[in-house]
C-alpha cells in the first residue's frame, strides 16, 4: 500500500469502490432532488398500467395502483437515507464517546459503561422498536434514534478495547510526559488510532439500520401508505408476489446494493484514512513470518555425489565426504585456516529474491540476499555477522529451505553431499532436525505452550531417532542434563511459560540437539538474554560443539559473541558477504572498511575520551542498493572505481576474502 | 550547581503489583544527578533500573522514599505539578518504534512539549521544532513525514529531539541505544554527548551495557535485584570493580577480542557467578 499518488486517488482505481461510490451518489441525488431522476409523481396512479413490467413509460414498471416504481424508489430515498443518518450518528456519538471514556479512564467509569453496554446488548431490539413505533407511529427519526442507541453497545465495546490497548502504548506515556492534558491526548493520539475502526463500524451500523428500517416499513410501521418508502414497496410487492414477482426486484435490489455499498465504502475509507502511515506496520509484520509451507520454484535437481560447485574465491571446489567418515578434530582457530578440504556445508552463489507484490508498490521481486558464499567445516563454529536488514537471517533460513515470505532461492547449498537447493521433501525430512538443528532468537516461539517440555522433546527424539517410548524418555533427560538444566526431571514436567528466558533457550537448544545434528544453525540465540545468561548459553554452545563435534552457524550482530565463540567469521552487508576470515584475522587484521568501521565504533575498543568513531549514514534497504560497492556511500575510502561496477569477493590470503577495491589502504582516521 | 543536585533520589522503594502479591522492584535506592553530569544506571533485566526511571517521571507510584528535583519534593506529585514538571524533566524510551505515534506526523509529535507553555506562540513553536531537528541532525522538512518513513536510528534522533525541544534540565534515557544497530549506535552515543555539552542538561542514562555506560557517563551506579551494589566514578568502577556482582557482570560481557573473550568464557564456564540473590546488603554503596 505504498504505491505512488495520494491515497484517495488510489482507492478510486478499485472498480468496486468506484461502483459503490457512484451508486451512493445516485441515491443521494434521489434523496435531495428526486425530480432530477424522474419526471413522474410517486403517487400518480396510472391504473391501466397497474402491475406492468419495465416499459418506456415506466422504466422499472408499476405497482398495484399503477404508481411508477422508479419514481417511488427515488422519492423514498430521502426518508431511507435520513433514517440511516440518524442511526449512524447516534450510534457513533454514543459509542465512541462512552467507549473512549471507559477505555481511557478505567475504574468506576469503565464498570458503569460496561454494565450499560451489557444492558443495551441484552435488550431485544425488535421488541423495543415495536414499542417505540407504537408510541410514535410513523416517526422514522425517533425509531432510528432508538435503534442507533441499541446498536451503540457494540461500538462501545470495540472502542473501549481499542482505547485500552492504545493507552498502554509508549507514545501515550510520552505525550503525558510532554505535559499534555487528558483531552489533548484523547484528541491527538487516541482518536486518530480509532478512526479506521470507527469508520468500519459505522458502515456496518448504516447497513444494519437500512435493513431494519426497511423491515419496520415492511411490517407496516413505516410512513403511511401513499408516501413512498423502500420497505413499504417491498411490503406491497409481497402482496402480489405470485401474480407479479417483478415488483419485488427494484426495491429489493436498491436495499441490497445500498447495504453492499456502505460496507465496501467503509472498508475503502478505512484504508484511505490509515494509508499514510500503515505501510510500515504491514512491512514489519510481513518480515516476521517465515512461511512454513514454502513454494519453491527452483526445479529439483538430482543430488550430485561429487561437488561441482563453480570456482570460488574461498578455496578449491569442495569435496563432500559422506558424513560417516571420521571427522577431523578441529583445532582452535589457527591463524590462516587451511582450505576446507572436508567442508560440511558449502554455500555458493546463494541468492534469495522475494516475490513481487502487485498492488503493494513493488512491481519486481526484491533481492534480499545476493551471491552468498559460505563454508562450514565439521565441528567448526562460523559467525554470520551483520546489522539488521543485511540478510543474515534470510541466509540462515534459506539454508534450511525456509526463506521468509515465499522467497525464491537460487545458487547451491551443498550439505554432506546433497544440494539442498532443490532437495525433495523426502530429502528434507532426513536433513531438518536430524542433520541440521535450528535455534531461534526467541525460544518461546519454538516451544508449544500447551505441552510439557518433556513430552515435546520426547516426540522430537522419537521422530528423529526412532527410539521407543522408554529409551526416548531417558534420552530426553540426558539431553536436558547436557544443556545444563540442574534438575532435568523437574524441567521436563514444566510448561514452557514456567521457564525463565535462559532456561527456555537451553530447552530450545536441547530440541535442536534431539536429532544429534552435524550442524546447528543458531539465529541470535542470546540477543534476548541478559549478559550473564548470554555467557552461560555461549559456554554451553562452545562445550556442545566441542563434545559432539557439531558445527555451528551462529547468526549474530554482536562482535563480542563472535570473538568469544567463533572460529571463522563471515561479515555481511546489504545482502552480500563483504569479508570472510578466521576470527583472529577479523579482529587483528580486518580488511574491509565496513568491518573496520564496526570494530572502531565498538565502545569496548574505543578510547574513553573523545567521540566514538562512527560510520556515517544508515544501512540501505533491499532495493536501494547501489550498483557498485554497496558500502561506497558510507565509505571514507570510496572513489570512482568503487561506484562504477559491482565489486567481486577477492581472496587475499589463506582463508581471507574481501569484497573491496582497495583493501590494503588504511582507513583514514574517522 | 548550587549545593543541591538537580535530581536527588533518597531511599526510593517501589513495590509492583497488587497489595498481596507485590514484589519489591526497587529497594532503598539513593542516587543524585547534577546539572551537566551523566550518571549511568547499570543492571540486568529485573534489576529495577527502568522502574526507577518510571518512578522519577511519575509513571509508577512510589512506595517509600523521596525524589526531589531541584530540591522540590516530587515523590507524590499530582497531575498539575507533573505537567509543570514536564518542562524540566524528559524521558527517551528504548523502543523508537512504539514511542512515536505512527499515525501522527513528526511535527505534531515534536510540538507537544511546547503546547501547554505560556508565551510560546505557533510561530515560535515551529522555530523551536526546526531547531531541535537540526540539533539531532535531521532536515527541517521531516516535520511533514510519518515515523514509518524513518529508520530506527533516525527515530531515536526524533525521540531525542522531542525530549529536548523544551530544553529540559534533566534528561532520563532508558536504554536509548540498545535497540539500534551497531553502526548507528555509536552515532547516537556521540549525539547524546554532544547535546549535553551544548545544552548542559543532567542525564540519567540507563543501560545494561557497561562499555557504553563507561563511555558516556561520569559516574556509574550498578543495580542488582532492586539494590545499589556499587557506585562511583565510571572509569574506576569499570577498571576496578569491587563488588562481586559488578565483577561477574563485567566478566560476562563478551569483549571483541578473541583472546580475552575466550579466556573469559572459559573462566565463566568453570565457575559461573552466583545466580541467586546477593548475600546481605553490601556496604560498598
UniProtKB/TrEMBL annotation, chain A:
Cellular localization per UniProt: Cell membrane; Membrane
Family matches, as InterPro entries: AAA+_ATPase, ABC_Ni/Peptide_Import, ABC_transporter-like_ATP-bd, MetI-like, MetI-like_sf, Oligopep_ABC_C, P-loop_NTPase
Name of the protein this chain belongs to: Peptide/nickel transport system permease protein
Region (Disordered), start-end ranges: 280-340
Similarity remark: Belongs to the ABC transporter superfamily.
Molecular-function GO term, any one: ATP hydrolysis activity
Low complexity compositional bias, start-end: 297-313
Main localization of the protein described in the UniProt heading: membrane
Residue intervals of the ABC transmembrane type-1 domain: 77-266
Species the sequence originates in: Micromonospora matsumotoense
A cellular-component GO term for this protein: plasma membrane
SMART domains found in the cross-reference section: AAA (SM00382)
Membrane topology recorded in Swiss-Prot or TrEMBL: Multi-pass membrane protein; Peripheral membrane protein
Residues spanning the membrane: 81-104, 116-136, 142-159, 197-221
From TrEMBL, chain B:
Keyword RNA-binding annotated: no
Database matches in InterPro entries: AAA+_ATPase (IPR003593), ABC_transp_ATP-bind (IPR050319), ABC_transporter-like_ATP-bd (IPR003439), ABC_transporter-like_CS (IPR017871), Oligopep_ABC_C (IPR013563), P-loop_NTPase (IPR027417)
CDD domains given in the database record: ABC_NikE_OppD_transporters
Keyword ATP-binding: yes
SMART domains for the chain: AAA
Domain ABC transporter: from-to ranges: 7-250
Recorded family membership: Belongs to the ABC transporter superfamily.
GO biological process, one term: transmembrane transport
Protein name as catalogued: Oligopeptide/dipeptide ABC transporter, ATP-binding protein, C-terminal domain-containing protein
Organism annotation: Micromonospora matsumotoense
PANTHER family linked to this entry: D,D-DIPEPTIDE TRANSPORT ATP-BINDING PROTEIN DDPF-RELATED, TRANSPORT ATP-BINDING PROTEIN
Lineage start: Bacteria, Bacillati, Actinomycetota, Actinomycetes, Micromonosporales
UniProt GO MF annotations: ATP binding; ATP hydrolysis activity
UniProt keyword list: ATP-binding, Nucleotide-binding, Transport
Superkingdom to which the source organism belongs: Bacteria
Gene3D superfamilies, per database record: P-loop containing nucleotide triphosphate hydrolases (3.40.50.300)
